Amino acid sequence: MxxxxxxxxxxxxxxxxxxxxxxxxxxxxxATATLCLVVILPINWWQHLPILVNVGNVAxxxxxAFCFWESRRGRNWFIGYFLVLLLLLDIVWFxxxxxxxxxxVS
Length: 106
Prior knowledge:
Strand content: under 5%
Number of domains: 1
Helix content: over 70%
Radius of gyration: 16 Å
Shape: elongated
Number of helices: 5
Order of helices and strands: HHHHH
Distance between the termini: 42 Å
Largest sheet: none
């Protein structure tokens, strides 16, 4: 477990050969995957939000994990990640009742 975390740390931020934009991209992808799948999904499930909000969050988390994995293999999907991020955030925002929020709607 400790070895896995240290190798993950080395591949994300401590590799001196990587350019800064790639390090930031990996951190953003890893943070997105962690937040969407470990933090936001259980909280949304507990609040009984619409199913499309949960589907959008899971899709965004899985795509963040996919982009992180691909970046570790040398394929950086900067534009694709940005477009999917915008699309899924708009879908989640729309099905979460927009600016009014899901709490005031239910």
